[in-house]
Amino acid sequence: MSVTAVNRNTEIDARAQTKIDLAAALRWAVRMGFHEGICNHFSAVIPGEDDRFLINPHGYHWSEVRASDLVEVDADGKAVNGKEPPEPTAFFIHYHIHRKVPEAKVVLHTHMPYATALTMLEDGRLEPTLQTSLKFYNDIAYDDDYNGLALDDSEGERIAKALQGGKKVAFLANHGVVVVGETVAAAYDNLYYLERACQAQVIAMSTGRPMRRISQDVAQMTHDQMSQPSERAQAVRHFEALKRLLEKDEADYKD
Question: What's the half-sphere exposure (Cβ side, CA atoms, 13 Å) at 104?
C-alpha cells in the first residue's frame, strides 16, 4: 500500500471517529440536561479539511442524532451532505470561531442552566471560589453585549474575537456559553466541569452568605496543575468511559 493510500485511510478513519465522538457528545449532553429543545449546536472541524466542519442538523433532537446524521458544512455555509442543513445561527457562530481560532477544532454551544444563569447576572462571572472553577481560571472570555439572535457575520466574529488568545470558554451575556477544544473529548470534559462549577456557585450564592475566594497565587497554581499532560489525559479517559456507557443502551449513536 502506498504512503498516499495510508494517509487517505487515516484521514477517513479520523473523520469517522470525529463523527462518532460528536454524536456521543450530543447524546451525553441530553443525559446531563445541557440541551434545550432542538436548539444549540456542537461542531468539529473535519480532520484533514480545515475549511469544513461537521455539525448537528437542524430539527433533530440531540437524543436521536447518529454519526451519519451529522452535516458537513463548507466555508460558504452550504451543506455539502446531510439530510438537513444546520440552523442559521449555527453557521454564523461556529464558522467564525473555527476560522479565527485555530485551536478551536471543536465548538460546543449550549444554554445549559447554571452556566446560562450566570450570564443573566450583571457582571456575572465564574468566581475563584471552588477547586473545580480553577480549571478555568483566566481561561474564560466574557462577551457582555447581547444583540439578539446571531444572524449575521458580526455576531460570530465578535464571539470569535473574544476567544482568541487561548480562551477555552466564552460567556455570552443573556444567552449561554461556548466551549472550545482541540478534540471532542477535551471540549466535552470542559463543558461538563464548567456546568458543575457554575451549579455549585449558583447554589452557594443562593444562601446569601459571602463566598470564600481563593487567592490569585493559589488559583493560578491549581490551574497550572490541572493543565499538566497527566490531567489532560483524564479528559480522554472520561470521554471513553461515557462512550462505554452509551454502548449499553444507545449503541446506535455510532451508526
Answer: 30
Encode 66-101: b = buried (16+ Cβ within 10 Å), e = exposed: bbebbbbbeeeeebeebeebbbebbbbbbbbbbbeb
Give the full edge-to-edge strand order of the sheet including 169-172: 79-81, 71-73, 49-55, 41-46, 106-110, 176-181, 169-172, 140-143
Residue 152 is classified by DSSP as S
Find where cell 449550549 sits.
110
Say if residue 207's pLDDT is above 60: yes
Domains and CATH numbers, the chain: 3-254 (3.40.225.10)
By DSSP bridging, strand 169-172 and strand 140-143 are: parallel
Distance between CA atoms of 166 and 115, rounded to whole angstroms?
A: 20
Strands 176-181 and 169-172: antiparallel
Q: How confident is the model over 112-140, as a mean pLDDT?
A: 97
pLDDT digits 0-9 by tens, 52-105: 999 999 889 999 999 999 999 887 777 887 667 777 777 788 988 998 999 999
Q: How far is CA 152 from CA 92, 93, 106, in A?
A: 6, 9, 21
HSE (side-chain half, CA atoms, 13 Å) at 118: 26
CB 23 within 8 A of CB 254: yes
